[in-house]
Amino acid sequence: MEQLMKSGGMKRRVLIVDDEMINRELLGAMISATYDVDFAENGKDALDKLRAPDAHYSLILLDLLMPVLDGFEVIKACHADEFLRRIPIIVMTSEKSAKVKSIRMGAADFITKPYDMPEVILARCERIIELSEDKSIIDSTERDPLTGLYTRGYFFAYLPGLQAHLDSPMDAMVLNIDRFHMLNELFGREEGDKVLRCVGDSIKAFLEGTRGIACRTEGDNFLIYCEHHDDYEQEARDRQDELNRMTQAHNIHLRIGVYACESDDVDFERCFSRAKAACDRIRGQFELVTTFYDHEIYEKNVFCERLIGDLQDAIDGRQFVVYYQPKYRIQGERPVLASAEALIRWIHPTLGFISPGDFIPLFEKNGLIRKVDRYVWREAAAQIRRWKDTYGRSIPVSVNVSRVDIFDPDLEEKLQTILKDNALNPGDMYLEITESAYSDNADHLIEVVNRLRESGFRIEMDDFGSGYSSLNMLTTIPIDVLKLDMEFIRNMLTDETNEKLVGLMIDIASYLDVPVVAEGVEEREQLDALKQMGCELVQGYYFSPPLPAGRFEELIIKEIKNESEETHDYD
């Protein structure tokens, strides 16, 4: 509407408020060629017109001395109304003291009585309207329409000016709502928006009376810059309790990361990056609401950035080494080497051995795991080929396919190319997909897995029972092998419930004609119990830890020797 009026599409509308008819008519005659003009005889009449459903005024020309309701009361009423306060007011008076008072109350300008220069009055009207419209356009981009907080761009634009006038320690804070996407799924977008508005209102209440500002960046992410507090925990819990009372979505969990800004020369992007790192550290830890960025987080961030920066060099320099952990078939007179799982190790030239627990979750989070996975696929395929050529037999190797790989449209083509380059068949390389990947986007994953199986690949579900699954999943997802999470196996001899669950899962898998691999077998008693339950395959330290290819070959040689001796005895 404002843009249309500014471009000349229609006249702006002005309300003249004066109890003297001659003054109303005189002002109207001066500006009616430029504006549509309405009139009010007193303050009450003016407010009624301003509050009418079809009222769209660009300016109020307001006399101060009127019966019923004077101009000062009109200014006060307009200022208290969120809609009316946007309309600029020019007061009309001859008293200097009244001019000052009205400006302090919120009037935009004044016109001195008597009206003797029409061109000056018209120019003042035009200037005030244009300033107001420009401010309105700025306000529409300055504020997040849902919460009323600043948008990210204006937030960071205002921070340096705010900082220049501060003499107290300040904190950068990042606030997030755990699993907000599930709130939208369960209660709908409307309820999700209500929660965001409530969070915005809570942040405004927290900042009221302080020197601080806040913004909503996107989704459920909020940034706050405020005076330092030693303890935000109780304040945050009070806000969380308030949210739970005001919405359907009970048990909302807020996460707040705090970074204490210590220097006058503040790098705001860095401050909020560190606050976000602190916030991310307590993701899923429902007993915690707030945490401060500390040296431990700093060291971890530096370490992670080092790993990200060194990844390509590690691939090019073959710092990654693929280890192989054997899987043994146990239903028979003796365990038989059946296949292996490829497990990656990083031997860094300066950092030494880097645990997969450090770099795999990091690369999964930022998508770089694709590079690592492709490296493992190529190495494993080449090793399978060497074992075939050297020992005349195929030792299938299971390789990981991360949830990031699943969304690669060229996944199947890349796998087939690697097999072709090494003269292998899809049956030579098994594909392991973690159980949690099925819960992320089950429909898409099932579609991809079905295509891979149709091409001849064998699919193993890894870490079954690690916290996402139900036994019902076994009847709906396409898999060829089920790998039980090692925590079940580790506790099965000391926890009767665990033992029963393992037996139940093996029975159901057997009914579905899906073989089971038990991971983490370390004791003979575990092996015997699993064998009695009908488990077909096991892997774990009882047989062997993960081994480099050269040492794994010793197991192949031993298996060939055992087979030879059995054949000789049979003859």
Keywords, please?
19% strand, TIM Barrel, 22 helices, alpha/beta, 8-stranded mixed barrel, 571 residues
How would you describe the overall organization of this protein?
The protein is an alpha/beta fold and 571 residues long. The protein has three domains: 2-142, 3-Layer(aba) Sandwich (Rossmann fold), CATH 3.40.50; 152-293, Alpha-Beta Plaits (2-Layer Sandwich); 321-570, EAL domain (TIM Barrel). 49% of the residues lie in helices and 19% in strands. It is built from 22 helices and 20 strands. It has an eight-stranded mixed β-barrel with strand order 11-12-14-15-16-17-18-19, surrounded by four helices. The chain has a five-stranded parallel β-sheet with strand order 2-1-3-4-5, sandwiched between helices. A five-stranded mixed β-sheet has the order 7-8-6-9-10, with helices on both faces. α9 (189-207) packs antiparallel against α10 and α14 (369-391) packs parallel to α16 (411-421). The chain is elongated and about 125 Å long.
